[in-house]
# Entry
Amino acid sequence: MRQKMTAGQIFWFDLLKLPPQPKSSGHWTIRQVYVGGLEQYHYPQDLSRPALQPPSSSQKGDTEGNPSSGQAPQTPGGASGPPVKITALLPEDYMFPPKENPTVARWDAVHKYWTTDSVLGVDISREEGTFTCQVPTLVPLALMVNRYWNIPYQSWSMMPKGEHLTLLKLKTPHLEVEIEVRQNLCRLLPQPRGKGEGEGDDAEEEEEEPLLNKMADQWMSIRELKKRLCSIGINVFPEEDGDNYVEQLHKKSRSCE
# Structure
């Protein structure tokens, strides 16, 4: 799954045990004092059996976007009980590939990577803004998109704008990006507003703020810019092995370079 990357926030799910319920007796309400807060309910109950074998390379992801804290239980190999059906809202600040829906992956806390193994019944509804899936136990989930849906470039250029200042222009199949580079820092330049689609001939056209403008005009390292772009589903910086995952690409000769 080197071709995939996590995008948007990490989704955490927990089941909680209900505290003791109050009881009524005449004019009295008896309530047990419960100390310690709500208690987590582990599902399925039998977590003592061996974990699943590591998935194949086609199912295994890298560690990008891994949860920073907390240990989710690994899916037991012989766990009983029906899978848990989860429905959640798609993130709003997020760009999808036009003709490809994201996939849902779970975090493997034992082997430390994202994987689609045991994630079943995935349904992405762009119209309703939701996704649904079934998992055998509650673990962190994330949406994954094709890392290279904005590659190859249609054109690119680099030109000086002043002392120690360079403008990089990238035109991809789905968007155009302009980045100013000053020494070891860079910033994304704002994009022009687009026109929204109104209803009827007399409807007023509303200007839509491009999603990328939320991070424009902020000087940061190239590593931080790449991280923030990927967090909303956009990658315009290919990895070294990116030519293995892009169709209709004329590969360069590494020996000649």
Observations:
- The CA atoms of residues 198 and 204 lie 6 Å apart.
- Confidence is low (pLDDT under 50) at residues 46-55, 69-77, 195-204.
- The radius of gyration is 24 Å.
